[in-house]
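Here is one such protein, fold included:

. . .
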Amino acid sequence: MTERLLICTDLDRTLLPNGNAPESVSARGLFAALAARPEVRLAYVSGRHRALVEQAIADYKLPQPDFVIGDVGTSIYAITADGWREWPQWIEAIAPDWAGREHTDMRRLFEHLADLRLQESVKQNRFKLSYYVPVEADLPRLMAAMRGLLAEQAIRADLIYSIDEAGPVGLLDVLPASATKFHAIEFLMQELGFSIENTVFAGDSGNDLPVLTSPIRSVLVANASAEVRKEAQELAALRSTGGALYLAKGGFLGMNGNYSAGILEGVAHYLPHTQQWMKIND
């Protein structure tokens, strides 16, 4: 049995208790203790850009990660005592999907579509084009139009949609096809020598579905919406990956399964020996 463990977790409403559900009091401390173990490598996987990830770490007193996959998978940083270092090998891996185009070119391609409103400039980068979409918009028709434009230009891109419940407003990211959270985690695993046997991902929302329904062992935290839970189960069944999807339900170490409690529950589900690593304050 291998002792190495790579934990990859989304931030907002997964590790960060910034949703409407309550957080178990001891959960974040237990998570930090687990992340501090020498066997564990920790990666934050987020739609946030670097400054907002750093802000989250400070605001919520999160453990310092070893890696950050940011901007919904379009950037990978290694974090050491010397600071943040972006991985150029990841940029080289995803750039060909957009066939020589970058953010400005892609924005022009869609500028005539009325339902698309550009998000703030800090939420954009060279290979991430992000829009707000009204929740009442005809999403299938909009995405079909966008896919048609991409096909005409032989551009390989993924359209990742989720809902900001605080809005409520739709969030639509246009990414190189290789730059989803799933592909970024897979790239990280390959670079670090981890396999699906010793990697666990945690998420809560629509843009986590490519990982949640992949062969990578994943946990959907208990505070995820019923819609995301239903879609994750349906997609996992369709892709025959149900054995790699765990739905946190609470009860583990007396916690409720929300946020970091759900992450710990999922890790213990896949790797029962790690329960001995989680006995601090129990």
